[in-house]
Amino acid sequence: MPDQSAIVTRFAPSPTGYLHVGGARTALFNWLYARGRGGKFLLRIEDTDRARSTPEATAAILQGLEWLGLDWDDEPLSQFARRDRHAQVARQMLEAGAAYRCYSTPEEIAAWREAHPREPFKSPWRDATDHPDAPHALRLKAPRSGETVIQDAVQGEVRVANDQLDDMVLLRSDGTPTYMLAVVVDDHDMGVTHVIRGDDHLTNTARQIQIYDAMGWPRPVFAHIPLIHGEDGKKLSKRHGAVGLHEFAALGYPAAAMRNYLARLGWSHGDDELFDDAQAREWFDLSGIGRAPARLDFKKLEHVSSHHIAAMDDAALVAALQDYLSATGAPPLSETQTQRLIPALPALKAKARTLPQLLEQARFALIQRPVEMDRKAAGQLDTVSRGMLESLTAAVQHASWTRDELEQAAKKVAEEYGVGLGKLAGPLRAALAGRSATPSVFDMMTALGREESLARLRDQTELAG
């Protein structure tokens, strides 16, 4: 087992589309494992599929990781840029007798497989001594007998019979390296000690181990984590709703909540459901990862999100709101809006499950005068109710502007008009927010402050008469 201080993990996405939530969780697990042990977390862009890899997708992946709060060490590595190094290793294997030239054409290989449908391809060139001057691939000379054994930190011991594996191609006939070779060379050269990835890669691992062994390189620790399924138990796809990390950002889940939720998706630490980054880094270990697929549960995600929104300090929450607005293409909060929003947050954040819910509750602090009314709020304002607001304005003109004193003043005005406080709260709510459903009118008044609250009341009382 490598020294804890020398732990190196990596995340290696293919830049062919958005960052899937499953990929984000894989990145998070690698990040947590490395950061919790003082190790390094590296990033490699597996861009060898030149037809599908795009700079836009690479940028989207980096942006997604940055939003999630995962920092990486060193510059991101391009796998395609290292193709000469991959080819060099293949030639080393050829010189050492661990690989051979295969001159079989695609048509010949297809015909062989049609004749032997249940067997891996066996090249007639494996032990050839004649080498014609013709296009050829380089194939791994894999062992034909025995087993390749994977000691997986999650899946346990996995055994694969070698006679079920073919001599995989290392270099194609055009000289380009294959993905299977490139991954091993890159992981070795990057000093990766732990390969933590989805269990859909498990079948590749037996083949990749043979390259490590052929080169005499130490094998990393492999940990293949189960995939994420939807609530119906089927493989996660668009039919389940959001699957891209950018979609979760646009739905208004804070990055801190996503880190907490994704960490618990397939990994556990006792019964702990809610935790911060420091706890996650301290607790995370491969032994806590289960073998069964995890299920994406939006109700549980909302619960985690509400916890983190309530726990965030004002500066972090404002930053999260700005990130949300950016993710949805909305304009950022202005300095004036931010100044009005911050005093309102203590009363609002304990009730919001998502950032858009928080913004909706905080709408009263973000709008400008004159307050625009919806139909129901406008129905609360008539001559009598505006008269009550005028009396309230006079009553609180010189109040100390605490919640208790404002509430007592409102109760006294309501008593003078012979009505309950609710009869005053409705028009007061309309005047302050232009809505019939808002936070407490006294929370709004304390958040808005004396000057803005009185100005909004006067806008309505001037219409009384």
UniProtKB/TrEMBL annotation:
Locations listed in the record: Cytoplasm
Motif 'KMSKS' region per UniProt: ranges: 235-239
Transmembrane segment boundaries: none
Protein source organism: Paracoccus stylophorae
Binding site for ATP: K238
Domain (Aminoacyl-tRNA synthetase class I anticodon-binding) ranges: 317-459
Subunit structure: Monomer.
ATP-binding found in the keyword field: yes
SUPFAM superfamilies: An anticodon-binding domain of class I aminoacyl-tRNA synthetases, Nucleotidylyl transferase
Enzyme class: ligase
Entry EC no(s): 6.1.1.17
Residue ranges of the motif 'HIGH' region: 13-23
PANTHER family: GLUTAMATE--TRNA LIGASE, GLUTAMATE--TRNA LIGASE, MITOCHONDRIAL-RELATED
GO molecular function: glutamate-tRNA ligase activity
Pfam family, one: Anticodon_2
Name of the featured protein: Glutamate--tRNA ligase
General function of this protein: Catalyzes the attachment of glutamate to tRNA(Glu) in a two-step reaction: glutamate is first activated by ATP to form Glu-AMP and then transferred to the acceptor end of tRNA(Glu).
UniProt domain Glutamyl/glutaminyl-tRNA synthetase class Ib catalytic: residue ranges: 7-302
Cited InterPro entries: aa-tRNA-synth_I_cd-bd, aa-tRNA-synth_I_codon-bd_sub2, aa-tRNA-synth_I_CS, aa_tRNA-synth_I_cd-bd_sf, Glu-tRNA-ligase_bac/mito, Glu/Gln-tRNA-synth, Glu/Gln-tRNA-synth_Ib_cat-dom, GluQ/Sye
Record family assignment: Belongs to the class-I aminoacyl-tRNA synthetase family. Glutamate--tRNA ligase type 1 subfamily.
Highest rank taxon of the organism: Bacteria
Alphabetically ordered keywords of this record: Aminoacyl-tRNA synthetase, ATP-binding, Cytoplasm, Ligase, Nucleotide-binding, Protein biosynthesis
